[in-house]
Amino acid sequence: MAAEHTFDFDFNDQGLKGQTFILSGGSGGLGSASSYLLARDGASLIVGYRSNRERAEALREELQSRFGTIVELIGGDIGEATVRERLIQAVKRIGYPLGGLVCFTGDPARVKFDQASETDLQASMGENYIAPILLARAAAEEMQSSSVSGSIVLFSTMQAIVPFESSINYAGPKVALVHAARIMAKQWGGPSGIRVNVIAPGVNRAGMALQSISSGKYDFFVEKAIIPRFGRPEDTARVVRLLVEPDNYLTGQVITVDGGLTLRRDIG
Ligand SMILES: NC(=O)c1ccc[n+]([C@@H]2O[C@H](COP(=O)([O-])OP(=O)(O)OC[C@H]3O[C@@H](n4cnc5c(N)ncnc54)[C@H](OP(=O)(O)O)[C@@H]3O)[C@@H](O)[C@H]2O)c1
Q1: What domains appear along the chain, each with residue ranges and CATH number?
Q2: CA atoms of 179 and 202, how far apart (whole Å)
Q3: Average pLDDT for residues 224-234, to the nearest whole number?
Q4: Rounded CA gap, 258 and 39, in Å?
Q5: Which residues line ligand 1 (CB under 6 A)?
Q6: Are the C-beta atoms of residues 232 and 36 closer than 8 Å to each other?
Q7: What's the pLDDT at 213?
Q8: pTM for the complete prediction?
Q9: Rounded Cα gap, residues 61 and 45, in angstroms
Q10: What is the rounded CA–CA span in Å between residue 71 and residue 45?
Q11: How far is the CA of 128 from the centre of ligand 1 (A)?
């Protein structure tokens, strides 16, 4: 008897309508492309920024005119409890449940370890670890209280994946962030739980890496064909989009979006 073959697949092409996402740092170099993609796919956005209101307003105007989406802006340092509360409170104003948090905030903490003071080390720990995990906890509480099985995406770095010389002050807290995300994924996961994943970008022609790229410091990565090109904000945005899909099956993972840099950086 011939076997019965069915090729009936559901790739969940519904988009993100009816959901709100908090993108903390969503107006920055990498964040703005993710804000664009989520708005394009129908999500309502709460975009957090620290001080550059002008850029955040320009992004809001662009997204509203292109896609007609709701974009609410919340300024201030997420290291402060009141700012985290304002981000969560904005969800209630929008009226659609919180489907997820994407936290782009971070600081390059460019002080070399042999010159770093205790204050420098603590500042990086605050910016790159403590503030993002506290915001993740607040977002998880909000999703749990409204029984939403949402998604949290945190931003680490390739420097947390392999050791780069002198980068202790930046990489140390970003490594801690990766492990915290795995614990959160375990603790808050389950049948209707929250998924938590991390993106570890490589060198992007955007945001905080722009200055180093412009100086020519990283040209050898491309010249020696270690990477095919520098990263683009669209590269990480596509991964964000995948991770926030409502029925996505990934949790507790670190996705390194670096064009292979961490695999091949010692070649040549
Ligand atoms: N760009 C890269 O190639 C690269 C490579 C590896 C890892 N990463 C990681 O990817 C993430 C995004 O980087 P990026 O290049 O997009 O950075 P960016 O262009 O400097 O943008 C950072 C965004 O976060 C906001 N922000 C920063 N600290 C904040 C705080 N404490 N509270 C509230 N908002 C805060 C900034 O607001 P204002 O501008 O208004 O202050 C801005 O919107 C970072 O975590 C970074 O470590 C980036």
Answers
A1: 20-259 (3.40.50.720)
A2: 19
A3: 97
A4: 25
A5: 24-25, 27-31, 48-52, 77-79, 104-106, 127, 131, 155, 157, 201, 203-204, 206-209
A6: no
A7: 94
A8: 0.97
A9: 13
A10: 5
A11: 10
Separation CA 164–CA 5 (nearest Å): 51
Q: What is the DSSP letter of 227?
A: S
What is d(CA 204, CA 217) in angstroms, rounded to the nearest whole number? 13
Q: Is 94 in contact with 46 (CB distance < 8 Å)? A: yes
For the record, the structure tokens of 85 come out as 């509360």
* pLDDT tens-digit readout, 33-88: 999 999 999 999 999 999 999 999 999 999 999 999 999 999 999 999 999 999 99
Q: Are 73 and 60 contacting, i.e. CB atoms less than 8 angstroms apart? A: yes
DSSP collapsed to 3 states, 109-149: CCCCHHHCCHHHHHHHHHHHHHHHHHHHHHHHHHHHHCCCC
C-alpha dist (Å) from residue 140 to 99, 201, 209, 225, 233: 10, 24, 30, 41, 26
**All residues at 6 or more sequence positions from 129 whose CB lies less than 8 Å from its CB, including other chains:** 173, 174, 176, 177, 180
What's the CA-to-centroid distance between 177 and ligand 1, angstroms? 15
Q: What is the pLDDT of residues 158-186, one digit of tens each?
A: 999 999 988 999 999 999 999 999 999 99
CB 256 within 8 A of CB 158: yes
